[in-house]
Specification:
about 65% helix; 4 strands; about 475 residues; two-stranded antiparallel sheet; mainly alpha
């Protein structure tokens, strides 16, 4: 009863697409039965579908049969997600995270008043929330609340849980395409190049976010408030700037969406980093999807370099031709189209403007962040946005749906196309894609594309806000 139709529409698409964008507060918007039987269930299935699509994609590139979707999903859930979630859940319980089917607790506060405290199967949700790169919180405050994230050890565990399986996908890819007939030194080099490129993008973002938050906010500084510990607005004291900046960068790089601080209170440049990483959607990314997105940039880099030297582009000994490039173009362009298109719509109609609670540059940043999070299937948000309305529920729902499936279908079509092609023999003119040079080329290709598509919008949002504060 607490969800009207557009919010139900948004919520189901959100958890079906592994986004977990929440336009409601979990402890008041859903019952414990809904949290467990619907939300936790869909966290397992949505994560498994992305992983299954990635494995089919990798098999196609490796020259193997695509496989069986049902078999892959069952194996991923029963052999990977459930065992790991059980272990992580037990550890979170040991740190103080509630795990109960009982009702809410009513307690006497130190002020002598009564207070209702929501509890439930929190540890079960938290474990798959991070391992499955889901991100939806049992509570509205997500992992900032001590019931979801009690200690520094639980914080580190949640960080590792987010990174574990997306990183493992890349290692798996390197093993799958390894040619055993070649020298042993080449083992996993293709995967290492992609992992290295992602690591560079991640590190650059983390350094910028950390230094921006440590620099503080000059407006708060002018009030005479000490900022030697950095910008502490919206952050948990027990985590501080360092853990908050790391968590922010990880959750948006690995497209999880969980938060241990409020992103709306980040400094302009600190908030631009998670926004940019969701716009790139290939800095490790969600489970399986991040690797597939980065391979699109790999193919694009191979194609551009091939044109520059006048040779037919090849990747993994398969020719890259017009059909593949058209599909790559769909994958790469659908993401900015959804983000920028819906953002333009939101600031041009009254229903969209009604949700913007901050004037000026920060208001635009709120809109860009919301649609970047939706299209990237991340789920975090600048919480100042009044997003629980028919307009925001419907538009973000469509952004989540199309952002998830259009690219995935095109990527599987690319894998099928390459699988059907005959392998080419390597020659002296073949572009090497397993060395440091190509890794750096890949990083530059990603940044160049981001600059061409998103820089104008970022210049009007977080960059302009930063200049207005510091200039």
């Amino acid at each position: 009863d607490s969800m009207e139709p557009s919010l139900s529409f948004n919520t189901i698409i959100s958890f079906m697409t592994n986004t977990n964008l929440q336009h409601y507060a979990g402890e008041s918007g859903l019952s414990n039965a809904s949290q467990m039987c619907v939300i936790i269930y869909m966290m397992f299935t949505s994560a498994a579908t992305g992983y299954a699509a990635c494995m089919a994609f990798c098999r196609g590139l490796a020259g193997r049969q695509i496989g069986n979707f049902y078999r892959d999903v069952v194996r991923i859930i029963t052999r990977v997600l459930i065992p790991l979630s059980f272990l992580v859940g037990l550890f979170l319980v040991s740190q103080g995270t509630p795990q109960t089917l009982g009702g809410n607790l009513t307690v006497h506060t130190i002020e002598g008043k009564l207070q209702d405290i929501a509890v439930g199967p929190v540890a079960a949700l938290e474990s798959i929330k991070h391992l499955g790169t889901n991100g939806g919180g049992f509570f509205g405050a997500n992992s900032t609340t001590p019931f979801e994230n009690p200690t520094i050890l639980s914080d580190i565990t949640e960080l590792i849980s987010m990174m574990l399986l997306p990183g493992a996908c890349i290692v798996t890819f390197g093993h799958m395409i390894h040619d055993k007939k070649k020298e042993k030194a080449a083992y996993g080099k293709q995967g290492a190049v992609i992992f290295g490129a992602m690591a560079i993008l991640f590190t650059v973002g983390l350094v910028i976010c950390y230094h921006a938050e440590m620099a503080g906010n000059p407006v708060i500084g002018n009030m005479g408030i000490d900022q030697t510990a950095g910008n502490m607005e919206g952050k948990e004291v027990r985590f501080g700037v360092a853990q908050s900046a790391l968590f922010t960068t990880v959750t948006t790089s690995f497209t999880t969406g969980t938060v241990n601080n409020m992103h709306d209170t980040l400094t302009p440049l600190g908030g631009m980093v998670p926004m940019l990483h969701m716009m790139l959607n290939c800095v490790f990314g969600g489970k399986g999807v991040g690797l597939m997105n980065m391979i699109m940039y790999v193919i694009l880099a191979v194609f551009i370099c091939g044109l520059m030297v006048g040779r037919t582009p090849e990747y993994l000994n398969k020719k890259i031709e017009g059909k593949e490039m058209k599909l790559v173009a769909i994958c790469i362009l659908i993401h900015p189209l959804l983000i920028l298109g819906f953002s333009a719509l939101a600031i041009s109609v009254q229903a969209g403007l009604d949700g913007i609670t901050n004037p000026g540059y920060h208001g635009l940043s709120q809109v860009l962040y919301e649609y970047a999070s939706s299209a990237a299937n991340n789920g975090s948000g600048f919480e100042g946005l009044a997003d629980n309305s028919v307009f925001w529920n419907m538009t973000t729902g469509f952004a989540m749906f199309f952002g998830r499936y259009i690219a995935m279908v095109a990527q599987l079509a690319i894998a099928g196309s390459l699988l059907a092609k005959r392998k080419m023999n390597e020659t002296i003119g073949t572009l090497r894609t397993d060395n440091v040079t190509f890794m750096l080329i890949l990083v530059f290709i990603v940044y160049i594309f981001a600059a061409l598509t998103f820089f104008p919008a970022l210049a009007l949002g977080p960059i302009a806000e930063h200049l207005s504060l510091w200039m």
